[in-house]
Amino acid sequence: MTSAFSKQISLKRMSKLFVRMATGLIILVLMWSCATVPGLQEETVGSVIRIPFVRVLLEEKSDDVTVSADGAFAIECLHQGEQEIYYSGKPVKIRNEKQRLSVFDYKGNPIRERIDEVNIIPRGGGNRVRLQKSRYRGILRVLPRGEVTRIINIVYMEDYLRGVVPPEIGPRNEEEIEAVKAQAVAARTYAMAHLKQYEGEPYDIKSSIMDQLYKGVGVENKLVNNAIDGTSGRVLMHHDDLINAYYHSTCGGRTDDVADVWDKKEVAYLKSVDDAAACSWSKYYNWRETFTEKQLRGRIEQYLASDRGRDLRIGPITDVIIGERSAGGRIARLRVRTDSDVYSFQKDRIRWVIGRTSNPDLILPSDRFDVDLERDSNQQIVRITFRGQGYGHGVGMCQCGAIGHAREGWKFSDILTHYYTDVAVKKLY
User: What pLDDT does 37 receive?
Assistant: First the structure.
């Protein structure tokens, strides 16, 4: 999940947002009911999109986009307020041509050219839209943005969660369903609190770790769907506000205050709590990463070059010093001393600076670690080992801890109110 920290959304603001969303949906229904295409009045948009819905940015592509559905689907083409609707049972291709969209049938023949927007709307119950090989509930909205094409899934919030919870919490069994319910409530709260977070953009959420992983219909399973249905509409609130329900894989023994991890203000419900070793079964409860001095120096040079926009070389590392720690045991400041300078790195950014030797494309599992320095006979550092605990930023709910507590018999509400302090589980819709 992202470390972006948006404003809390109160019930009053949420009700106004629902009204705006409902108004937009009514307009869409009116557009459908007023169209002159034969048979169009048979469509029931309400069965495709229900309120509250969420707009998920699936992809931004520079090449052609192939879309379809399990069965027949409508292709709504919009241009300067004019609407034309076509039907198809086979895939269609959408191409961005100088910031206008053109739609082609499966044989490559043009259906409609130089338009502003395309909506792919499935016909009939149980029919899902398709983007390449992935399937999604709801509808697909396709928009040009410069030279790239944006594909947005507009989907009912509960159906969105069916594609979010499985990749976020992983395969689970019936014994762990209370942890799955806790994940569903946290994911729902996060999504509801971040509606309209991207001001001026035609989407609310990104399908990535910037927000929440979302994989559509392909990852749905009965256990998760039961957990979502069993917590339908329930969210976490601090007084009258939706909370920012951050979560992470493994806390390593204790979560942390949000202000100690990111440069954010203190929040009453994102405080350090003892995990009571509930996540000790996680493979990331303890971990180790070892660098040669040259490898670590290269990682730091790479980070500094990216941060400052120019190549930078540092001298040999002579010491790695842990400064103060957070309440959860994470490092608040790390100093790297070279033969000519001292470089200081703070909070969660440390993970990006160091990275991993086991996989250079990944960041360090967590900031909760100790450092071992191996020196040669001349007292020169030859090897640096980071021995740590946990995986992720450490703020909010520990997912592996939630699973551990579920195995102990905890209910989802107990799990949530343990990791998020001073909150209540409320039914929002």
Answer: 35
Residue 168 pLDDT > 50, yes or no? Answer: yes
Give the pTM.
0.88
Residue type, 264: K
Q: How far apart are CA 190 and CA 286, in angstroms?
A: 28
Give the count of alpha carbons within 13 A of 43, CB side only. Answer: 29
User: Tokens 């339908």 belong to which residue?
Assistant: 232
Look at phi and psi of residue 56 and say left if phi exceeds 0, alpha if psi is from -120 to 50, else beta: beta
Contacts of 43 (CB under 8 A, 6+ apart): 32, 74, 121, 123
The encoded tokens of residue 174 equal 């019936």
Task: Please tell me the total number of residues recorded for the chain in this structure.
Answer: 429
β partners of residue 288: 387
Measured distance CA(242)–CA(188) in Å, rounded = 10
Number of Cβ atoms within 10 Å of the Cβ of 287: 22
Dihedral of the CA atoms 248, 254, 255, 261 (nearest 10)? Answer: -100
Q: Are 45 and 76 in contact (CB under 8 A)?
A: no
Could you report the per-residue pLDDT of 213-270, keeping only the tens digit for each? 999 999 999 999 999 999 999 999 999 999 999 999 999 999 999 999 999 999 999 9
88 touches 105 (CB < 8 A): yes
- Confirm if 162 and 137 have CB atoms less than 8 A apart: yes
Pinpoint the alpha helices (H) of 163-292: 165-169, 177-193, 222-230, 258-261
How far is residue 248 from each of residues 8, 150, 203, 392, measured CA to CA in Å? 20, 28, 24, 5
What residues have CB less than 8 Å from 310, skipping those under 6 apart? Answer: none
**CA R_g for the chain:** 25
Place 16 in a pLDDT band, splitting at 50, 70 and 90: low
Report the C-alpha gap between 239 and 422 in whole angstroms: 9
Distance CA 244, CA 421 (A): 12
Backbone phi, psi, residue 182, to 5° = -60, -40
Q: 11: exposed, middle or buried (C-beta count within 10 Å: 0-12, 13-18, 19+)?
A: middle
